[in-house]
Amino acid sequence: EDKVVQSPLSLVVHEGDTVTLNCSYEVTNFRSLLWYKQEKKAPTFLFMLTSSGIEKKSGRLSSILDKKELSSILNITATQTGDSAIYLCAVMPRGNTPLVFGKGTRLSVIA
Amino acid sequence: EPEVTQTPSHQVTQMGQEVILRCVPISNHLYFYWYRQILGQKVEFLVSFYNNEISEKSEIFDDQFSVERPDGSNFTLKIRSTKLEDSAMYFCASSEMIGQDYGYTFGSGTRLTVV
Description:
- The structure holds two protein chains of two kinds.
- Chain A is mainly β.
- Chain A is built from no helices and eleven strands.
- Chain A has strands spanning 3-7, 10-14, 19-26, 30-38, 43-49, 56-58, 61-66, 71-76, 85-93, 100-101, 105-110.
- Chain B is built from no helices and eleven strands.
């Protein structure tokens, strides 16, 4: 059974801190790994990673995939209270198969 | 920016009643999905839909569930006889095609409460 495990499950940091969120996966056929940010309702897309070792960046957020270790990290630098959310990792197996989600990491950034 | 729209945002229903959750995917998208998230748990896949038919479904998607694209724009999820354990946030998602570099676009969800 395909599985995605995220750690930590929750994290509390102060504004300005840098955080690293982890995602590991076990899937039969791997195509891509996706990161989403979930605030109140819908998950909003952050990154899609398909190739190992290539960092994707968007502002203070960055992410990288390690296919050898079957894992990915999401980094957030200089955190702000607006970064408080649940960060979801999901894997897209090959073919037209659905996303497999992890349980998420709940990040709380306090002023 | 194009959005996936879901209605209603919140629905309360009595156990045993039928509910229909509605979604309007992004207009040029070809693949449609329903996921659900029970409070405090992970997002789970229910069903995917392509070319007017179900392409894949999970074990959760039993005979109580059905999906339709009645008019070429709406995409609906019907639960025939709701159970307490169907209470969850239901997300619709769509994608243009597999492999696009932006993943899926999710709607804002319908919170279903079965009492």
